[in-house]
Write a structure and sequence with these properties.
6-stranded parallel sheet; 436 residues; alpha/beta; Alpha-Beta Plaits; Dihydrodipicolinate Reductase, domain 2; homodimer; 10-stranded mixed sheet
Chain lengths: 436, 436
């Protein structure tokens, strides 16, 4: 059977990895796909740049329109990232009858609804396995592997940079700024790390996961986002002492009152498998009604791990390229007419447990006034740990674990506590999930 | 679009689970599949038996031929287990143009080659996700999610009974027989537990995993099989002391000299994620050239977890039911003409590390004679732990960790050691894998 012709847009880290894997494993891949997959052209930023990857037989151009309008290309692989011009290129490729594979989480999270609409009209496939958790086949697992289930919730460590920083802080006791600097030196964090450490990248991915898990439209703007830049070594140490590890987690939950979409640092019991996912590795834990918990673990970024998912998508497209479009796997796991616009809950409506830490002056009645504030709002304290001298009028740290409660109530209580004259500064607050 | 009609063979644990999940999640499932999936008939062992599951609208019969010859059934779901008559029924269904979904690992491991041959001739799908690791979508992940990769090895905790027993022995310090009895009382082990605790069930599953990972024919007879019945609490304790956990693992490795297929108890460093997979849970760790390590975790057995995979297969079949058979996912991940009959290595050719424990009389020269035996065969000792009194002529236990070596050499050395007059009884030997 004749080869399938591919055009790449982007020949950076992931683009080079994709070309390398397609060449090195050409035989292995065509044994699986049943046809040869051949890259015939690639759009690059700078033709004059020296490249490590072997581009023999690949027509290189600085003009991505040449890819989108190439008469022999059947599948366009977009590996540039960002939106704007890239959205135009992807829509152009679909207009020209080309299938699309993309690793671009921002593009899918922000513009996926219109992209899939166009693809359906044209009877084309848009595949995006590599957009979430790199090389882990999490889109496929949820979309196809768990199709029997009502998915209840999922929780993912889906940003390698944040997980690397938290892991290093936990293991070495170093502070956030020093670890971030090391991560930048090692190439695990960008020069401007905002997207990763402030949770925006994780929120893009959570948007996509929630959509395929629950059959809801993509809606990035509804995700609650908090990064890891406020986490201190002190909190990590206390959490450990209490049997918890601090992880940056994206959580989507389908509850009776609506769907929770949130990205924030979270204490997880050390005994949970996902609490032991360290360094730049990613993992997604999915709780479903029939199968119960399942977990998917692997590299969430990097050249070849991401290429692994890009090429898996190519194989999928090749395997289905001649079939009836109506019967393909729907982009968002559910068929178009069954996308339900369920309400997204505001963060204040979300119920979760908390780790709180506050500095107070050690004098009679302090604990009583704090406990009264929580008690008045029906908030239960699970355990209290006091750190510091026993001398009257000295500063001591109080750590509290708070049982599941509405975030709105908790925020109000914490505000009152902070107004007490015996409480110094802000109350540190980290959410806590049993994940079971 | 009109409903797809299903016939069940078997309405035991998994059959009831399948019917229950299909009914409870009917809406969720048809939102994904695009069509209603309706069970219209089921073959049962005893019509008079009281059932918990709601069989309204399902025609029940004790004659499975009625399912296989039913004019309205498009997909037959086989959930009885075993071979013999069941193989006949499956081949009959294929002859009659029905697609087949099965949870039967023995059937696929022993007769898969002929079943798939018939299915290809007829242009039909045979799906078997539930045959390996229950509800974990491991077949799909390897066959489709990792299709870009040259898979190097995989290691799986793929028998829940064995993992439960080892976990209990580790956590409670109880011995094998007592834990087995508890497991039987709890329903985690069969009255005759041989298939599970002697590794046969795990070997069926490993046969299937290896085939789809490497593109080789199914060949159960080539798997090396060792169960857990010889593991003692003493060994588990020492392993822990050394930083390892004892797990029952199926390993398939594609090495230059051939393919390793083996099922046996294995020490794994406690820090590995898979070492922390406890109780009846399963996990499969796959090492591939592009993506690196990925791990898949979940329930490996049980009514609804297994039904989850059965129904996922049904959705897959429904999604592809009208497509060109040439372009479907090949049963064994690789296309028929690309199945390579690569040689399977004999266990003696396999290189692995070892945990050894022996009882010796504490007198001068004992250690020297043991060390000489290993040294003469170029076998390196990584560490030695001596347990027991320091008094001359008392019995002491010696535990050794042996670096990677050919099993053939190790067996020979151990035989020599056992012949020493100062060594009492047999040398306990458990293989050890870094899994990294």
């Amino acid at each position: 059977m004749k080869a399938v012709n591919i055009g790449l847009i982007g020949l950076g880290t992931v683009g080079s990895g994709t070309l390398t894997v397609l060449k090195r494993n050409a035989q292995e891949i065509s044994r699986r796909a049943g046809r040869e997959i051949r890259v015939i052209a690639a759009a690059v930023k700078d033709l004059s740049k020296q490249r490590d990857v072997d581009t023999e037989g690949v027509y290189l151009t600085e003009n991505m329109d040449e890819i989108v309008n190439h008469p022999d290309i059947e599948i366009v692989v977009e590996l540039v990232g960002g939106d704007g011009l890239i959205l135009e290129a992807v829509m152009g490729a679909l207009d020209n009858g080309m299938h699309v594979v993309t690793a671009n989480k921002a593009l899918i999270a922000l513009h996926g609804n219109e992209i899939f609409q166009k693809a359906r009209e044209k009877g084309l496939v848009v595949a995006f396995e590599s957009a979430v958790a790199g090389g882990i086949p999490i889109i496929k697992s949820i979309r196809e592997g768990l199709s029997a289930n009502r998915i209840e919730w999922l929780a993912g460590i889906i940003n390698g940079t944040s997980n690397y920083i938290l892991t290093e802080m936990t293991e070495s006791g170093a502070n956030f700024d020093d670890v971030l600097k090391d991560a930048q030196d090692l190439g695990y964090a960008e020069a401007d790390p905002t997207f990763d450490i402030e949770g925006i990248d994780a929120a893009h991915k959570l948007t996509i996961l929630a959509s395929i898990a629950f059959g809801i439209p993509l809606q990035f703007d509804s995700v609650y986002v908090e990064g890891i830049s406020a986490i201190t070594g002190e909190d990590i140490t206390y959490a450990e002492e209490l049997g918890y590890r601090v992880k940056h987690v994206g959580i989507a939950r389908n509850s009776e009152s609506g769907i929770e979409l949130r990205v924030h640092p979270t204490l997880i019991p050390v005994s949970r498998l996902i609490a032991n996912v360290n360094g730049v590795m990613n993992a997604v834990l999915v709780e479903s009604d029939a199968v119960g918990p399942t977990l998917y673990y692997g590299a969430g970024a990097g050249s070849e791990p991401t290429a692994s998912a890009v090429v898996a998508d190519l194989v999928d497209v090749v395997r289905t390229i001649t079939t009836d479009p109506e019967n393909r796997v729907p982009h968002l796991a559910f068929h178009k007419d069954n996308i339900i616009d369920a309400p997204i809950m505001d963060m204040s409506q979300v119920e979760t447990a908390y780790y709180l830490r506050m500095t107070v002056t050690n004098k009679p009645g302090v604990m009583a006034s704090i406990a009264t504030i929580f008690g008045d709002r029906d908030i239960s304290i699970d355990s209290i740990l006091q750190k510091g001298s026993g001398h009257r009028n000295d500063d001591v740290s109080i750590i509290m674990l708070i049982q599941n409660t509405l975030e709105g109530n908790l925020v109000e209580a914490v505000t009152r506590v902070e107004e007490l004259s015996t409480v110094k500064g802000r109350v540190i607050r980290i959410r806590m999930e049993q994940l079971s």
